[in-house]
Each structure stands twice: as C-alpha cells, then as structure tokens.
Specification:
This protein is an alpha/beta fold and about 600 residues long. The protein contains 19 helices and 27 strands. The structure holds fructose -6-phosphate. The site of fructose -6-phosphate has 14 residues, from helix 9 and helix 16.
Length: about 600
C-alpha cells in the first residue's frame, strides 16, 4: 500500500527520493509525488501512474534541495489524481506532509478548518494534517506536529517538512509503520526498510505514539508526552540484492522458484529428529502456557487466511487442539469466548496488515495468548504478539503471495508437531512428519522442472473467462488459494470450492466454457474426488487435475493433468499449490497483465 520516504543530508534529495519510491513500488500504488525544501520554499511534483511518470515530469525541474519527502499513494479517500497524490500542503505552501493510514475524524477537522478559512485542494483525509500543522506552527515543526497528532483519530505514519525549518524532517507513527535510517551526516525516513537498504542498514523502528526529528546534524526521538526516548539501532541484513529479479521476468516467478529455499529456511535448525519433535525458540517464553491451551483461533487475511484454513487440518492431524480459523476483518464481529485457555495465532507475511492487527487487539482485550507467524522481522505484528515464529523466507516483492504461503504451511506444521508431542502424538508419528518435511524442498524442485508443461497447459486455458477450483479436506484451502492466485493477477473470475459443495450450487455454472481445476490427492478423499470429476465431465466441463505422480486412474478421466510428488496428506498442499501458482502466473503472462503489481492491489494492506 502507500509508501513513504524522506531524506535530509548533504546530497540532493530528489534522486534519493525517486530511488526510494522505486523500491517501494512493489507495495502497490496509483500515484506518486515528492516535495523538496529549498531556500524558504517548497517545490512539489506529483503524478498519476508510475514513479517513472513522476520522474519524467521532474526531468525539467532539477530541484537541488537537500531535504524532502515522497510518497506512493494507494487511493482510499478520493480517486487517483494529481490533486489527491501526496505530498499535501497547507494554504501557505510552507508545510508539506505525506501520510499512510486513515484519519477517521477528517470530516470534522476539515469542517473546522474550512470555518477558519483554510482552502483545501484535494479530496483526501490526509490534507487536514498539513492545515492543522499550519494552525499550530509558531517556530518549530516538531511542536506543531505534536499538537496536530493530538487532534487525529485513526492510523498514521506521517513525515512532514516545513520550508522555514532548514533540512528538518519530522516523523510520527500510530498504527502505520515508519522507520529512521541512519547514515553518515544524513538521515532517512521510510515506511519500509527495503527503501533504505542501499543507503544504510542502520535502522530505528518507531513504535506507536512515537515521533522523531531528523536533521543532518543528528536526530532525537520522543513519545507524544514530549519525553525523550533512547532506542536501539538495529542492523538490518544487506538484503538489497534480493530486490533484484536475478534474471527472472517477474518477482512472482522468482519467488515461486525460491520456495525450496524458503521451505528449508522455515525448518532449518527447528527439527529434533532424535525426539520426533520440533524446536521453536520464539515460543519458548510462553511454552508452559501454550501446553495448557485448549482452543486455537487462527486469524489472517487473503493468502495467509488460506494458509490458516490449511493450518486447521494440520493442527487437527497432529494435536488435540480445537481449531477455528477467522478472516481477520470479521474477527471482531464474532462473539468468541476467549480466556486463558485460548491462543490466537496471527499469520502475516508483512506483519503490517491492519485487519490482522485489529483482530489481535480484540483478542488481547479478551485475555487470549497471542502468537504470530510473521515474515517481516520487527514488523508491527511481531511487536504486539506475546510470542511467535519468523518465516525467514526473505522479502516477498510480488504482490501475489507465493513463497510465504508454503513457508507458512511448514511453520504451522512445526507448531502443530511441537504441541502435538505434548499431547497424544507418538514419537513414530512425529518422526514421520519430520522426514516428510525434510523432503519438501527436493519435491518442490521436482515440480518446478515441469515448468514447460505447465506453461503449455496455461496457454490452452488462458482463453477461458471463468474457472472453478475444487478440492476436499487439506486440498479445499488449496482450491481457494489456487483460485485467488488466478483472479488477482490475471483478472479472470475464479472460485475455490470444497468439491462436495459443488452439487449444492456451483455445478449449475459448468459447461464447455467453464473449466474446473481439481486437486486430487491419493488420500481418503480420492474416490469422492473422482466422482465429482465425473459429474463435471457429464456436463461437458473441461477438467485440469493436479494429481499424484503415480495416480493411474486420473488421466483417463480428465482432459489435462499436472503431476506432483506425494507426501503426507497434511503436507500435500505445500506441493499441490506450486503448479497452481505457475498456472496462474503463465495465464496472466499470456494475457499481458502487470503480474507483480496487479491493478487495485497492494502488497501490504495497512487500512481496515
Ligand atoms: C494474495 C495476497 C494477499 C495477502 C493478504 C494478507 O496473494 O498476497 O491476499 O495474503 O493481504 O497479507 P499479510 O500476509 O501480509 O498479512
């Protein structure tokens, strides 16, 4: 979603801001802009579309200033337009701000400011921030911003500059991430460390209700009670090279191919073979409490939600926990009884998803133990959970989540194994899970060698406008995730369904123009899946099956088959989703879609 970058130092700000914006592009956006302070003036450039459009617009304007802020906007309040793009200014054009999040009371504030003769030039909620700063500004931006945020309700990560405050960038956070990058005689602000890694690996993350003032001569951090804070500098790994596509045409394809490594990273050092159990250091501080938990509620969104649905089958296979899975945005509307016996597990790649954060807050209020499985180290969710496990999958840049899904399934398996071994799960059963987990990277590699075959099938199916994806048990969430992958990047309508539900409605859609992707594993659901496929064939539906390598019956029934190796039923989804990711990828490529940045989508969804 929206991205922020800010700079103050000896270098010209504009090229650094543009470069930072390019590194934030993967988050998804529809307009971009930057403001540079120079003399006692602010210069603004804004454009609808890509950062390259902004860059073109800025070619004729060198803007030599050494301090500035920039933004990629994903429209919430007001359509994507130049006026609505950030940075926003006050009436005097001395104040400029960029904002991530939502100001919930902006209409009241706007009314008040209009009554005080402020003139607004956008439809956004964010613009009120600039006008409030104007109201409160006497001599310093820090105090004016401090007073401003006391008036704001909602979530925000804000960076502000003032034409009269020489080379100063002031930032503040509540619910929307913002970090400081520390250089040599220069400082950076950003909503995401990836934007800063070429410049510095020294990062300070602000917590909610903290603000920082950056100036080439130094920085200080305060809370909103105006008290100074000392915060540790973290050294972020030099992962900038991962921001490179490394010869792949898209990040999504690169990340699909990174899955063997991401899966290995998820279990490396976490398996104790001699005891048939896993070891998850991040859960140790809460292990005593976790052993007594009776109910587990998994909360997450999108692909992470489907991983959660898979997680339910995994926990039910290995442990005695009662498991519920909730879409995070619906969690607060449920009247779920929660107490010390309940653990709530949040799954999130970004660790910044606003709906998931809101669900965690709700669960905390009710006294549940809060756990997380998060990929981005130090992210918001990682900070507010009681304990958790990192995926260590490396950054995911493609908007369509791929390697995190399979990594999440592996981490969930390790968690279920850990808890299960304190319950009824035997050493032999635990050992079988460990052996199967260890084989996964090789098995995924084998699927990836089938790329040309999958590409050919995708080409044949690219002409259809609707798809049904079906599976049973462990493969029902795989059907949902396969359909999501296809719809989000190729804009083709696709529905994921439990195969048994087909006859209760969706079968009426089936004809020769409505193909079905059937995920058929050799488990207890096999015969029933074959019957469902026959029902589709009887109605002239085309069927593509994802099936086991040694399944001899499937080829005679289906029009096309993609083969995958076999593993334990609870881990089969890790393998079955891989060809479906490639299938969606190639269909989107044949259709000429913008695969890494699908329309209307954002990588990190920081609004509820
Ligand atoms: C789909 C996708 C989204 C995310 C969802 C949750 O490919 O990427 O559905 O899975 O927005 O994001 P995280 O996992 O960052 O909480």
């Amino acid at each position: 979603m929206c991205g922020i970058i800010g700079y103050c130092g000896a270098r010209a700000a504009k090229p650094i801001l543009l470069d930072g914006l390019k590194r934030l592009e993967y988050r998804g956006y529809d307009s971009a802009g930057l403001a540079v302070a120079e003399g006692n003036q602010l210069n603004l450039i804004r454009a609808v579309g890509k950062v390259s459009d902004l860059e073109k617009k800025g070619i004729a304007r060198p803007l030599p200033g050494h301090c500035g802020i920039a933004h990629t906007r994903w429209a919430t309040h007001g359509r994507p337009s130049e006026e609505n793009a950030h940075p926003h200014c006050d009436c005097t054009r001395k104040v400029s701000i960029v904002h991530n999040g939502i100001i919930e009371n902006y209409l009241d504030l706007k009314e008040e400011l209009l009554a005080r003769k402020h003139v607004f030039s956008s439809e956004t909620d964010s613009e009120v921030i600039a006008h409030l700063i104007e109201e409160y500004f006497e001599a310093d931006l820090e105090t004016a911003l401090l007073k401003t945020v006391q008036r704001l309700e909602g979530t925000f990560g804000i960076a502000a500059i003032h034409a009269d405050c020489d080379r100063q960038v002031v930032i503040v956070r509540r619910g929307s991430p913002i970090i400081i990058g520390i250089g040599e005689g220069e400082y950076f602000a950003a909503s995401d460390a990836n934007a800063l890694l070429p410049y510095t690996q020294k990062i300070i993350s602000l917590n909610d209700d903290e603000m920082a003032v950056l100036h080439p001569s130094g920085y200080h951090i305060k809370n909103l009670n105006n008290e100074f804070l000392q915060k540790e500098i973290e050294i972020r790994e030099g992962r900038d090279e991962q921001a490179d596509k490394k010869g792949f045409e898209h990040f999504m394809l690169k990340e699909i191919f990174e899955q063997p490594q991401a899966i290995e990273n998820a279990f490396r050092g976490r398996l104790i073979e001699s005891e048939g159990v896993s070891k998850l250091g991040g859960l140790e501080p809460v292990m005593e409490r976790l052993k007594n938990v009776k109910k587990l509620v998994i909360v997450s969104c999108g692909t992470s939600y489907y991983a959660g649905l898979c997680g339910r089958y995994i926990f039910e296979s290995l442990s005695e926990l009662h498991v519920e899975v909730e879409v995070a945005s619906e969690f607060r509307y449920r009247k779920l009884k929660m107490d010390g016996d309940t653990a709530v597990l949040a799954l999130s790649q970004s660790g910044e998803t606003a709906d998931t954060i809101a669900a965690i807050r709700e669960a905390k209020r009710k006294g549940a133990l809060i756990l997380g499985v998060v990929n981005v180290v130090g992210s918001g969710i990682a900070q507010i959970t009681d304990a958790g496990v990192y995926n260590h999958a490396g950054p995911e840049f493609g908007v369509a989540s791929t390697k995190i899904y399979t990594s999440q399934l592996v981490v969930l398996t390790l968690m279920a194994l850990l808890i299960g071994r304190y319950q009824g799960l035997s050493f032999t059963e635990g050992s079988a899970v460990i052996q199967a987990v260890k084989k996964l990277p090789r098995q995924v590699k084998r699927i990836l060698t089938d790329i040309e075959h999958i590409k050919k099938i995708a080409q044949e199916y690219a002409r259809y406008e609707d798809f049904l994806f079906i599976g049973r048990q462990h493969n029902f969430p795989t059907a949902m995730e396969g359909a999501l992958k296809l719809k989000e990047i190729s804009y083709i309508h696709a529905e994921g369904y439990p195969a048994g539900e087909m006859k209760h409605g969706p079968i009426s859609l089936i004809d020769e123009n409505f193909p079905t992707v059937a995920i058929v594993s050799q488990d207890s659901t096999f015969d029933k899946m074959l019957s469902n496929i026959q029902e589709i064939k009887a109605r002239n539906g085309r069927v593509l099956a994802v099936a086991s390598e040694d399944d001899e019956r499937i080829a005679g029934l289906c029009d096309d088959v993609i083969r995958v190796p076999e593993t334990l039923p609870l881990l089969q989804p890790v393998l079955n989703i891989v060809p479906l990711q490639l299938f969606a990828y190639f269909i989107a490529r044949f259709k000429g879609c913008d695969i890494d940045k699908p329309r209307n989508l954002a990588k990190s969804v920081t609004v509820e």
